[in-house]
Amino acid sequence: MAQIKIDHVTRKFGKNEVLKDISFELEPNKIYGLLGRNGAGKSTLLNIMTTRIFASSGKVTMDQQSVVENDDILADMFLMSEVDLYPERMRVEKIFKQAELCYGSFDYKKAYKLAEEFGVKLTARFGGLSTGYHSIVKLIVALCVPVNFVFFDEPVLGLDANHRELFYQELLQSYEERPRTFVISTHLIEEIAQIVEHVFILDQGKIVIDDETQAIIDRSYAITGPKKAVSDYSVGLNVIGHQTLGGLRTDYIYGDLDDERVIPDTIKIEHVDLQKLFVYLTEGSVNYVKE
Amino acid sequence: MLKSKSNRLALYDFNRSLIRLVWTFVWFVGITIVIPVLFSITFNGSTGFKLNSTGFAFVAGLYLFIDALMFNYDNFKWTIQNGISRRTAWWARIKGILLLALVVLVIDMIEMFVKGQKITVHSVFVGYQNETVGTYLIAIVQLYMGLLMLALAGLVVGCFLALLNKRGKAIVIIGFPVVLIVAVTNLARALVHANIDWTGIVNFSKIMFGYSDSTGNFNPVNSSIVMLVWILVCGGLSYWFSQKLRLRRD
Q1: Fewer CB under 10 Å: which end of chain A, C or N?
Q2: A69: chain B residues, CB-CB within 8 Å
Q3: Residue A48: what pLDDT?
């Protein structure tokens, strides 16, 4: 099965280095989360992967073949991005036909079903739709094109809670019906935490986390207790952030705990959810060691 | 072959161009025929319409240039969204232009036929005024090549402009004509005052157009080669520019 490899990709805009020597791989039939703060380089990375823009150095390959100017590879990918690339005057139904023309086939049955569920008028012009409906049209196309790699860049932009819920349901159903690789780049981490199997966290142009979701959570801890007890226990561990409330302190740790170390009765250790981990890992003010 | 991606795209591109051409004609007919006829009927009582005064071929030629000039970035946007490489999109565009130029050629010939004009009148390069099949064929081929020259010139400019952001485009669109006018004015002034021997330039032009001093005829092969070189250079430049296209945030 096809695999995408991002190999030492760097991207500069003028003097600003947005992506710094990024390397990772995307395996077939897996759901990935690509997380990062605003300006971390998520969209730039996805744009490079789909050759909308070019890398300053490094390469993106699928089965050892460069994606650049490779129709076979490009026809196996779809990037649903926040930018609208469809002609404003084009009707929704025509957008489906355009996708069929380019990708060779299109799941009209599913597209019509999704359009009905989301309440999209097929005869509406794309430019006349709201931001939310722009996202919905693009999501429908993304779920109905015959590709093995679907990238979502802010897929739920402008969507209300009901539509967001519906999208996640449809995404999982679509994955169940035809497993393929999805990469979801979003700020709404809590909403995708239960969906993604593997997480990439991008911070200041670098991948700081590249691991299975469960493994990340298993290695994230919140140590809570009296200030001194917590501080003593955390010495030498990879503390990525902390909170204090009165006499209580919570240290957030990413990495293995010291099994030899005795855990005092006064402190409590629990796992941290993905969102909290993300916040502390990407918070510039906190000094931490990224593993 | 016809099922290949670039062919499918070329036909799609061609259909869209054709629809726009029809709309151009609708507007052209409305502005240059319907409205004047209505005025004539209202004020003079007669239509005042003369077939010879129509200029469909000119409009179609102009449209060919503009169609190739415009829509390049828009085309890039939707093709890259749908997993089409720049090369395939460019190749499809070229095929679409070849088809559209053929349509414009047919319009041109129909108009000439309706107006009772001879095609050789339009083909200034063809010096053989005897009306043989070969002469007509050369004239038609050269007319087609002339249309392609026009379209590909538009494509080069369009692909170049597609690389620029709004600010860059504004600078080029406003700045280029100004620079051109200043340059041409200065060049004209310099030429007026300079004592230039034009013989070399005239001889070179004669070679380019295949003019024979002894017979007074033009050899169409020479001019065809010049046209072909223009087409290939413009095609190559447009390909080079199209390979550099990237998504802009403007």
Answers
A1: N
A2: 85-87, 243
A3: 96
Q: Is A188 helix (H, G, I), strand (E, B) or coil?
A: coil
CB B146 within 8 A of CB B223: no
Q: Which residues of B touch A47 (CB under 8 A)?
A: 247
Report how far apart the first and last C-alpha atoms of chain B are (Å, whole number).
38
Whether A211 contacts A225, CB under 8 Å? no
Q: Is the pLDDT of residue A250 over 90?
A: yes
Q: Which residue of B has its CA nearest to A145?
A: B82
Whether residue B103 contacts residue B21, with contact meaning beta carbons closer than 8 Å, is answered with yes
Interhelix angle A131-144/A108-118, rounded to 10 degrees, is 150
The ranges assigned to domains in chain A are 4-213, 219-281
Q: Helix or strand or coil: residue A200?
A: strand
pLDDT tens profile A168-188: 999 999 999 999 999 999 989
What one-letter code names the amino acid at A31?
A: I
Rounded to the nearest 5 percent, the helix, strand and coil shares of chain A are: 35, 30, 35
Q: Which residues pair with A211 in a beta bridge?
A: A199
Residues of chain B with C-beta less than 8 angstroms from the C-beta of A53 = 246-247
Pairing of strands A149-153, A77-80: parallel
Strand runs labelled E in A64-205: 65-66, 77-80, 149-153, 181-185, 198-203
3-state secondary structure of A20: strand
Q: In the structure encoding, which two tokens stand for residue A251, read together?
A: 């240290």
Residue A290 has pLDDT above 50, yes or no: no
Alpha-carbon span B72 to B90, nearest angstrom: 9
Give the model's confidence band at A259: pLDDT under 50 very low, under 70 low, under 90 confident, else very high: confident
> pLDDT for A16-73, tens place per residue?
999 999 999 999 999 999 999 988 999 999 999 999 999 999 999 999 999 999 999 9
CB contact under 8 A, B87 and A69: yes
Tokens standing for A211? 């691991």
Of A53, A77, A83, which has the smallest distance from its Cβ to B246's Cβ? A53
How many angstroms separate the CA of residue B245 from the nearest CA in chain A? 8
B/e letters for A16-26, b = 16+ CB within 10 Å, e = fewer, are ebbbeebebeb
Q: For the beta carbon of residue B213, count every other beta carbon within 10 angstroms.
A: 7
Among the partner-chain residues B8, B81, B85, the one whose CB lies closest to the CB of A85 is: B81
CA distance to partner chain A, nearest, from residue B233 (Å): 22
Contact B153, B234 (CB under 8 A): yes
- Which pLDDT belongs to residue A143? 97
Is the CATH number of domain A4-213 3.40.50.1820? Answer: no
